[in-house]
């Protein structure tokens, strides 16, 4: 396919999608019924709902009137299974297979939405029937998630109908490599994997590297507890990642890319693999893409689920068939990466940002966010909050807006105690900082990090010593063991935290715990080890009184920790 063919296909596919933009139907159908098929909704029974919907439509003879589409994650995981009916965008939540007959009979046949399945405002009980009316959706700005829950992720035509691969065509039809890199630099996009390094600068270093061949790598090894942003993008909009990688390949002079996806994400692997296949068949991957002379292809490498393989040098070792262990830097991957060749490595969310930046310009993207943190960020909301799931907001949005306006506030009338951001590498932000704008620098000032975007909300019943013990247990278990500070330091910290929760520790143990966390932070080999002590450092800074209650008074203020142990445990 050439650029003209792509434009013709886009125009045709766009017409078929007009129904989902609340415009008149042009594809012969009167309704499109979208069933959320992300992993969260799969676990809540969306497959049986979709099957029942297809059967009931056939039973009532409505096949020519209604088209059923399984989409990726729409966002609010606590409301699944969900059905959205277009052209009006009527949103049904917590649908069961038993509800389907009513939806088909009353709505799709008679044109009357089923009132009992519509969303209700938790505060007022007012019915909010359409997606744009619901605060969870209308307070977001969706760039990365622009297609998730809107298109069929297995249809390349639907992606093209939403301007997919138009950015790649633009790049190949008149932009130099340097111009592409400059556009990404102008956008101010920083890596969404955790470190926040400027993406354009990373691309420039790889472009300037003289060694060949060069590689492009997508880090899909999302391992933070509570994080599932990358999984949802790979499941719901795989072509957006693929297009970003192809643009990156052109910009730095690479003809080969690898997507490293953890084995626990079977649906993401399946959908991304299908996207690669369909892109190859259409000439959007492979040799001489769009008759431009540029060749680029992508392969999937399935990770075994080791947390350390989220660290870029460990990930590159794993792709090369070696043990997934980090190495000292420099040299950085831009000079010496995969197979010791220059390599650009970005995570899924970063790659999904690339095509919109090329289409709308770096200045447009830089106009969103704060002075040093541009664009939007996807967060995985979890914990003791009313609305859990994926949200995408401009950087600079306050924690209060995310927790209360979008997340719906605390469950069961409890009060907010803390927000754990950044997973095991991050820290607990106390409730009094709820009006802090979310950006890289503001979170760092509170001893936390953006990380990949995990955001766990804790209420008044949470024990901060137990929270630190949970994350230390995870980090200690996932340490690759290559460097002594991380291997032994995390083990000793976990032992102290365990003794604290069992009423066997002293005040001196708390001091030793803090000392150990600082030593590991300064001496560990890689970023994961260097941040392993963050949960300890942030909780001892903000909640030292809880540690003292455990150590001195042998009491857990919230009653979470048992503070008593059996004889067998006491011998350890």
TrEMBL record:
SMART domains referenced in this protein's UniProt entry, alphabetically: NADH_4Fe-4S (SM00928)
CDD domains given in the database record: TRX_Fd_family (cd02980)
Main EC class the enzyme belongs to: oxidoreductase
Keywords: 4Fe-4S, Iron, Iron-sulfur, Metal-binding, Oxidoreductase
EC number: 1.6.99.5
Classification via Pfam families: 2Fe-2S_thioredx (PF01257), Complex1_51K (PF01512), NADH_4Fe-4S (PF10589)
Keyword Oxidoreductase carried by entry: yes
Residue intervals of the NADH-ubiquinone oxidoreductase 51kDa subunit iron-sulphur binding domain: 465-510
The UniProt record lists the keyword Hydrolase: no
GO molecular function: 4 iron, 4 sulfur cluster binding; FMN binding; metal ion binding; NADH dehydrogenase (ubiquinone) activity; oxidoreductase activity
Entry's family note: Belongs to the complex I 51 kDa subunit family.
NCBIfam families noted in UniProt: PRK13596.1
Protein name in the entry: NADH dehydrogenase (Quinone)
Organism of derivation: Desulforudis audaxviator (strain MP104C)
